[in-house]
């Protein structure tokens, strides 16, 4: 089976399992690929997890080992008690695999492949995973700022700002709440980027200087840059990326003329979405930072 680059990227995200209960540390990734015929050793000098997985998938692409890899990823025995989750994962992956004219099929406890004679885009599967604003706001996040492993003083500032955001929303100070959300989110993502500079700097979404072509230094990144790169590497999930548009331009509206020009008049609903995005980001980054070596 020969897969295109985008399908392999999605497969990499599933294998690495960032932000999920199926997270694989560097050592577990080595064991996973050694089962496919590699003879790697985990230790000092190990590259980022996403780079390692991309490299190994590229090497087995078009070989029988890739078929075995996909079957191992979706092995039913690893999803006992959560078969619905497995089926949803397969359905989502098949949206990408369809462009290679293949589909993964689960037949009871067996994972097989079906060859397609044409590209089939399953819009029903896509709509099932497309979460709306109301559903997103109903999600509950157990926020633990300490899980971000930031400097204690920075953590205390973030905790204080989260409390202030709540007070602003309760007082219908929506714009103030959104500005605070944006500042906290950028600070959290900057701290994450500083902890994993190689991951962020080598990402395809990393912003580059138009003259030199070099990746910009972190202080020159926008909030949108941080979000895109974090999402690319599985640090943030798609729900955060989808709703981040309501906070990513927060700095612009510090200036009254910018707010007037774009007619940006946020209400309480917008502020609540922004806060929910921030909470989700903190939880997902915390999961990433406490998931082991990267």
Short overview:
This protein has 294 residues and is mainly α.
Could you walk me through the main structural features you see in this protein, from its secondary elements to its overall organization?
- It comes from Roseburia difficilis.
- This is Abortive infection protein-like C-terminal domain-containing protein.
- This protein is mainly alpha-helical.
- The protein contains 14 helices and two strands.
- The protein has a two-stranded antiparallel sheet.
- A hairpin with a 2-residue loop joins strand 1 (102-107) and strand 2.
- Helix 9 (174-195) packs parallel to helix 14.
- The longest helix has 22 residues, at 174-195.
- The radius of gyration is 21 Å and the shape is globular.
Poorly predicted regions are 125-129
Percentage of β-strand residues: under 5%
How does the major sheet shape up? 2 strands, antiparallel
Order of the strands making up the biggest sheet: 1-2
Rg, Å, rounded? 21 Å
Count the helices. How many? 14
Task: Give the integer mean of the pLDDT values.
Answer: 87
Portion in helices:
40-55%
What characteristic shape results from the CA principal axes?
globular
Structural class: mainly alpha
For the record, give the distance between the C-alpha atoms at the N and C termini, rounded to a whole number: 28 Å
Number of strands: 2
Q: H/E order of the elements?
A: HHHHHEEHHHHHHHHH
């Amino acid at each position: 089976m020969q897969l295109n680059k985008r399908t392999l990227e999605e497969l990499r995200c599933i294998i690495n399992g960032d932000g999920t209960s199926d997270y694989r540390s560097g050592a577990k990734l080595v064991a996973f690929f050694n089962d496919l015929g590699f003879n790697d050793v985990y230790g000092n000098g190990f590259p980022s997890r996403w780079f390692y997985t991309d490299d190994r998938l590229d090497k087995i692409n078009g070989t029988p080992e890739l078929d075995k890899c996909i079957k191992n990823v979706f092995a039913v025995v690893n999803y006992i008690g959560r078969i619905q989750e497995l089926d949803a994962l397969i359905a989502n992956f098949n949206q990408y695999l369809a462009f290679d004219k293949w589909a993964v099929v689960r037949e009871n406890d067996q994972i097989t492949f079906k060859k397609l004679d044409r590209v089939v885009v399953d819009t029903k599967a896509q709509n099932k995973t497309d979460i709306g604003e109301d559903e997103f706001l109903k999600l509950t996040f157990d926020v633990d700022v300490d899980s971000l492993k930031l400097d204690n003083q920075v953590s205390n500032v973030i905790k204080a700002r989260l409390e202030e955001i709540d007070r602003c929303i309760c007082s219908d100070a929506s714009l103030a709440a959104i500005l605070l959300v944006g500042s906290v989110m950028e600070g959290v993502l900057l701290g994450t980027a500083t902890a994993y500079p190689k991951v962020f700097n080598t990402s395809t979404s990393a912003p580059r200087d138009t003259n030199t072509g070099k990746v910009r230094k972190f202080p020159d990144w926008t909030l949108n840059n941080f979000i895109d790169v974090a999402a690319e590497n599985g640090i943030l999930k798609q729900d955060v990326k989808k709703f981040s548009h309501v906070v990513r331009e927060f700095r612009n509206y510090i200036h009254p003329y910018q707010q007037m020009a774009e007619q940006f008049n946020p209400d309480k609903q917008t502020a609540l979405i922004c806060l929910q995005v921030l909470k989700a980001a903190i939880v997902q980054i915390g999961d990433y930072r406490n998931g082991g070596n990267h």
